[in-house]
Amino acid sequence: MSVVPADVLPGGALAAEEPAGGAAELGPRARLWPSLAAVYRAQLSRARVARIPLLFVATFQSVGIMILMRGVVDDGGEAQAVVAGSSVLVVAFVALNLLAQYFGQLRASGGLDHYATLPVPPAAVVLGAAGAYASFTVPGTVVTAVFGCVLFGLPLAHLWILIGVIPLAGAALAGLGAALGLLAPRPELATLLGQLGMSAALLLGVLPADRMPEFVRFARDLLPSTYGVEALARTFGPDPDWAFVLGDLAVCGAVGVVSLAVATWAYRRAAVR
Questions:
Q1: pLDDT of residue 113
Q2: Which end of the chain is more exposed for a tag (fewer CB within 10 A), N or C?
Q3: pLDDT band for position 51 (50/70/90)?
Q4: Radius of gyration of the chain from Cα atoms?
């Protein structure tokens, strides 16, 4: 004779405790900021090993460009543009180029299905990944800016402005990179778009604007990283106009909000397909 626990029987004690409607009550929805922090830590831990060598490549690339431009440009405004553009180029390489490749591969491999099953808002996934990739640009950008100031004889006093330039330019470029990776139908196309975006940041950000044709200057104004470059370059002068610096940073921040919103929409679109 076998003994069956009462809680597994239809009329058992636990069965009687079920809600009258017969449907189990769902847990509370995950909040944005705790979810964002969790995704950020996970992405930071994942990318630490894989992305650090590429960060060295981005830094050496920017330093090499400044060494080449040292014998071409004059001191003054041209040197300021080269140093500022090379510094922000590190942000573009990681936040735009690598993030576009990451989301393109994630979409192609079905990795978005994993994130779609997690109880986190879509914005937390995009912002967490973008923040993690942008965080890796900090040491390379600082090293590039300090090396460029020493190489071209520019003052180091106002390099603290990088505290605003890196996150705001990083947000704008990371949102653009994430959107490109999520909207591209193939990972190869996402890689191509990321490379083209970084090349645009290189050509339009490092070269002095006064040497460009008018139509190229217009294209330069459309690039989000341009305003981070302008904000940093203005601080190298003897008497920076802080109103213009704050204006450039405000444009960077506004573009970052828009690009991250587009990336969030692209994530929702890609996750349900």
A1: 78
A2: N
A3: low
A4: 24
pLDDT of residue 28: 58
Q: Are 38 and 115 in contact (CB under 8 A)?
A: no
C-alpha to C-alpha distance for 136 and 12, rounded to whole angstroms: 57
Hunting for tokens 């940041």 — which residue is that?
201
Burial classification of residue 101, based on how many CB atoms lie within 10 Å of its CB (0-12 exposed, 13-18 middle, 19 or more buried): buried
Please enumerate in sequence order all residues whose Cβ is within 8 A of that of 178, keeping only pairs 6 or more positions apart, or say none: 99, 100, 103, 126, 129, 130, 260, 263, 266, 267
Whole-number average pLDDT of the chain = 83
**C-alpha 197, offset from chain centre:** 13
Residue 20 has pLDDT above 60, yes or no: no
- DSSP assignment, residue 241? -
Percent composition of the chain: helix, strand, coil (DSSP 3-state, to 5): 80, 0, 20
Cβ 39 vs Cβ 125: under 8 Å: yes
Question: Model pTM greater than 0.85?
Answer: no
Terminal C-alpha separation, the chain: 54
DSSP state letter for 23: -
Inter-residue contact 151 to 67 (CB < 8 Å): yes
Residues in the chain, overall count: 273
Q: How far apart are CA 213 and CA 245, in angstroms?
A: 24
> What letters, b where the CB count within 10 A reaches 16 and e where it falls short, cover 152-173?
bebeeebbebbebbbbbbbbbb
Query: Which of 104, 86, 101 shows the shortest CA–CA distance to 150?
Result: 86
pLDDT tens for 94-109 read: 888 888 998 999 888 8
CB 108 within 8 A of CB 187: yes
Instruction: Please enumerate in sequence order all residues whose Cβ is within 8 A of that of 166, keeping only pairs 6 or more positions apart, or say none.
Output: 91, 134, 137, 138, 141
pLDDT attached to residue 273: 64
